[in-house]
Each structure stands twice: as C-alpha cells, then as structure tokens.
Amino acid sequence: MKHILALAIVFATLSSNATEVVSFTKEDDGKTLLMFDNVNQGDQLLVKDAFGIILYKESIEKSGQYNKSFDLTSLPDGNYIFELDKKHQIRTYPFKVDLSVVTFNKEKLTVINKPIVNAKNNVVYVTSYNESPTDYKIEIFYNTNGSIYEKIHTETVKDTTTFGKKFKLLEDKKEDYKVVISFKGHTFTSVVNF
C-alpha cells in the first residue's frame, strides 16, 4: 500500500509539472523570443538538430521565468528541437527552419518523465510513468573496485506506460551500485549506496 501511495504522489507531481507554459514570439529583428514561465536553477536548455547533435547548451542560472532571444533564421534548413532538461522531466519543443522561416509545432511537444530510483535497506526501487507505451531497459551494476562496475542484472520491461520494480541486493555487499535505465533514446543513470 505504501508503494502504491508513493507512486500516486510521484505521478501527481509529474502531471502537475506538465502544464508549464512556454511561448515562442517572433521579434521585429527576426529573432525568436523563447519564454518559459517556470524554470529552476540548474535546468539545462539545449538546441539539437535532427541527428541529436547539440548546437547550443545553457545551464539555467535563476529559478522563475526565463526569457531569451535566439536567431534561428541562420540555421540551415531542417528540423530541430529545443530541449528543456528539468529535474524530473525532459520537454522537447520541435521547430523547423525552411528558407530562413522558423515554424514551431506546439502540438508535437513531447514530455519524457525521468525514472525515479530510491534505495533503502539493500533494496532498490525503480518507478517510471510516461504517457505513451515504451520499452524500458534496466541494468544494475555493482562497484567492484573504485570506478569499475560489473553488471549484475539486466531486464527489459516491454510496451508499458507505468512500472514499478523492486530489486533486493546482497546484504554483505554494502558498496555503490549504478542503476541505468534506457528508453525513448535517453539513458538515465543513478548511483546508490548503502
């Protein structure tokens, strides 16, 4: 019952963050003004091309509202995304450049909720929720010698929106563990120790 309640709280928190307001405004000089109503210090803002190559990266320095002008018209014709990497989510905003005309498609906004990894009493708990079904690859590594990790478990959770997993680890191995979860082209790594 405690695990179900914890999942419900996590999902309520994630869904409340999904209503963040963003606006893209074309300025008189042709630049695009990007505005987010709620960012946190340490969030990462990136511009990526269609191949996932990072063209621009900025660490948000101040929590609250974010405003910045970008000259996107100088980019070569093609598809791009703004990616806002927050503590619990990655939000992508696609746009297209065609003959120096920039077009945003707000309907194609995607939100990826990051998995949550907790550890207590030699048990690792992994939970995740995303709106569209996907396959999750879970790998657990044991720190055998300083920076060398040995894989001790791997599994795939197929075609699901929500999952919760519990992994019991050996009580005599009180060292660092690394939990790696991959889905939708992203990899998330958490280091836990007991």
Automatic annotation (TrEMBL):
| Protein source organism | Olleya marilimosa
Q: What is the name of the protein in this document? A: Uncharacterized protein
* Signal peptide positions (record): 1-18
- Keyword line: Signal
